[in-house]
Amino acid sequence: LNELKISEFKNSPNGWTHTNPYNIEAKLVYVVVNDKLNLTWNFNIVTTDHKNWYDIFVSAEDGKVLKKENWMINCEFDKNSNQKHSHSIVKNNSNMSSNDGSSYNVVSLPTPSPNHGPFELLNNPADPVASPFGWHDTDGVEGPEYTITRGNNVYAREDDEGDGFGSGTDYSPDGGSQLNFNYQPDFTLSTSENMDASITNLFYINNMMHDIWYSYGFDEESGNFQENNYGNGGFGSDSVNADGQDGSGFNNASFGTPPDGQNPQMTMFLWSGPAGEPLTILDGNMAGEYTGLPAGFGESLPDDNPLTGELALLYDSFIDVHDACDPITNSSELVGKIVVIRRGICEFGSKVLAAENAGAIAVIMVNDIAGSGPISMGAGNDGGNVTIPSIMIGESDGNALISQLQNGEIINASLINVANYTDSDFDNEIIAHEYGHGISNRLMGGAQAAGCMQNSEQQGEGFSDWFGLMITLGENDAPSIPRGVATYSAGQAPNGIGIRNAPYSPDFGVNSYTYADTNNTNSVSQPHGVGFVFATMLWDLTWAFIDEYGFDSNIINGDGGNNKVMQLVIDGLKLAPCSSGF
Fold it and tell me: Considering the entire predicted model, what is its pTM?
């Protein structure tokens, strides 16, 4: 339990208890560690920032932590041809579905985002096999139990306070007795003023992911996400809890997958779009404004009064002495300072937390990749404990700054929020990516083995990218058209490079990454870079199947190469043992 901050606990008459809306229960279970069967106490603990969901096994014999898994996957996206998409998937299916009269104004599949195509009003889009009583049912009887964005497959609502699911104060759009969710977004307004349209789209894509992959075998018996399993096996009471416009972070998204029968948690954040100029150097030869990108964890940059302080260069004890990957040697010089650190081989969250523990009030991270600009820093294992703000700046500006600090220059700087936020609840690829983590976690190793995607060669991030690509694959796509992932949230054009090392393409001139590149951990990170390589393989396979069997725009009942490869991937996940690698 030493991974949790002591501040997450409070003293009570009965001892220390966790201040968390999720109940903590201990149960005796056996677990195999190092080929030995051990009797352990098993705890599930959600941290108070809702960014970690630990499954912990403590020896019943001596109290040592024998095994720890994190069910919450923080995707930590790195932000780094205008194509027309077909819209023939599931539109006006009133003759095919439970006719509950529902309608939704959404970014309809296969359109990836509002940048790729218009909103469309869909009538009765629920699949009659996967969701036979519509999307607002929970009792298996004709007629909706909810008129808000809640039903058998997902409960979608905002959490702009960032206080997590279960607070009871969060908002969901209400379609009334007609289930009319025809909300018109206006992107000239703030994200909060588009809340109804945003959460409606989040509800739509979660339900579409449920219905689409149901037809390929992610069903009740396989551990899918439904409150009522309608007598089809598996455990119910586990629809997705989906937080939109979550206020606990930026430039990120996450999905927590417990075993079958417990509700998973999806968290969608706002993104700060293209890099702005949040950093101002106030004196010296480098005085001026500089481009930077805030981290996806820790405190946000201030909106009104800039955070101002003297810069201090961090020194540690080994190799690159400025990367904070080893014990800090000048802690006393960092107290009350904005600390400058160079990017290195350890996680961003660990670096910033080390500086904070040494007394830093903020961190400026310097990209160490030659010629590279800033990227959005992911939290890693320790970022959830960080409470100070941090940004990354580009390699050229950063090295110049480090050089001046090495020479003893006294430099003061200020940091302020300059972001124009984009709502990832309109980015269908990111929603599908997060939901995809639930699919792969429930299928690999079985629905009760939620921790099977955590080895160093796990392909979970790759499966999730591929899930997003497949549901947004249209008739007018081609292998010659590169696909950048999440271009909308990253503030890029529809034909942008996306947020991975390269766009997805079978053309080696566009994407030349192979399995061998996973050895280069400095440029191909684990798990996101490793997953990117795996998704590159799956994308090549997809186009090979389409070349052989053609493309079918009916994503649920079609028989094209795209349908065949979707079936094979789901079957493969079901066959894969726990902790499979490439």
Answer: 0.73
